């Protein structure tokens, strides 16, 4: 009998922590300027933009938030372009005292690469990224830095993308 009460109490405690986080889900749109050293391309650096939208839960126990991200990146220079669209999970952390929110993501999607007008090809793309946001005004964050390792399979092109920009949290 005591074991059942303990399990119920534990379940109630977990629900009380998770429910407020689920009720405070957050939707945000973002855009930024990106630059990337590119290996296997006709240029050593490419530049462009990154745009996207993410949705995540509120911070469970005010520390961790989970969600998803949908994004596109558009890099080009000197006849080379690397355009990607990807989606995947997002985990953000909130330090109790510091104003920064680090996050990590693992994304999959498609990438289109064109290298010096020899034609373009579209293949599977995967990305691993990490970044750091900080609030500058209510509902407006500065994406201080984001690092994205992006690979388009079937190509010898990999990009190590650095991005800075703005995030508008809608609610």
Give the arrangement of secondary structure elements.
Blueprint: H1 2-23, E1 26-39, E2 45-56, E3 64-77, E4 80-93, E5 100-115, E6 120-137, E7 140-152, E8 158-169
Antiparallel strand pairs: 1-2, 1-8, 2-3, 3-4, 4-5, 5-6, 6-7, 7-8
Query: Which spans have pLDDT < 50 for at least 5 consecutive residues?
Result: 10-23
What proportion strand?
A: over 45%
Query: Judging from the principal axes of the Cα atoms, what is the shape?
Result: elongated
Element-level helix/strand string = HEEEEEEEE
| Terminal-residue CA separation | 44 Å
What average pLDDT do the residues reach? Answer: 84
What integer value in Å does the Rg equal?
A: 19 Å
Provide a descriptive summary of the structure in words.
With 171 residues, the chain is mainly beta. It has one domain (25-169): Porin (Beta Barrel), CATH 2.40.160.20. Helix content is 13%, strand content 66%. It has one helix spanning 2-23, and strands spanning 26-39, 45-56, 64-77, 80-93, 100-115, 120-137, 140-152, 158-169. The protein has an 8-stranded antiparallel beta barrel with strand order 1-2-3-4-5-6-7-8. It is elongated, with a radius of gyration of 19 Å. The N and C termini lie far apart (44 Å). The model is unreliable at 10-23 (pLDDT under 50).
